[in-house]
Amino acid sequence: MYDASCIKILTEKEAEERFPWVKIERLAQEYLRDKDWIANGLEACVRCGVPQEYFIEYYLKKNKEVTYLPSVTLTYQELRLRERT
């Protein structure tokens, strides 16, 4: 039976883990960047097996103490190229 006890209010962190678009929207607003750019950057990290925190630190926060990973950049470029074709 479905009733009020079935409803769970998610924390912001839980919502971001469950629904990637929530995280993308938050990052786009926080860093004033394009949502598609962020979505592709986060997806590139996933495809490379790199934590998404890498994209956030290196590209959004511009933390150059983070080691540059060319595989993420290459994967990002491939994703963008596929969007155009």
Secondary-structure map with pairings?
Layout lengths: L11 H7 L1 H12 L3 H14 L4 H8 L9 H15 L1
Report on the architecture of this protein.
This protein is 66% helix and 0% strand. It is mainly α. Helix 1 packs across helix 2 (20-31), helix 2 crosses helix 3 (35-48) and helix 3 packs across helix 5. The radius of gyration is 16 Å and the shape is elongated. It starts with 11 loop residues before the first helix and ends with a helix. The model has no long low-confidence stretch (mean pLDDT 94).
Supply the key terms:
85 residues; mainly alpha
Low-confidence stretches: none
Which structural class should the secondary elements be placed in? Answer: mainly alpha
- Provide the succession of SSEs: HHHHH
Percentage of residues in DSSP E strands: under 5%
Mean pLDDT: 94
Number of domain units: 1
Topology, number of strands: 0
Please report the distance between the alpha carbons of the first and last residues.
47 Å
Gyration radius, to the nearest Å?
16 Å
| Number of contiguous helices | 5
Q: Could you state the oligomeric state of the chains shown? A: single chain
- Overall body shape: elongated
Query: Major sheet, described briefly?
Result: none
- Relative helix content: 55-70%
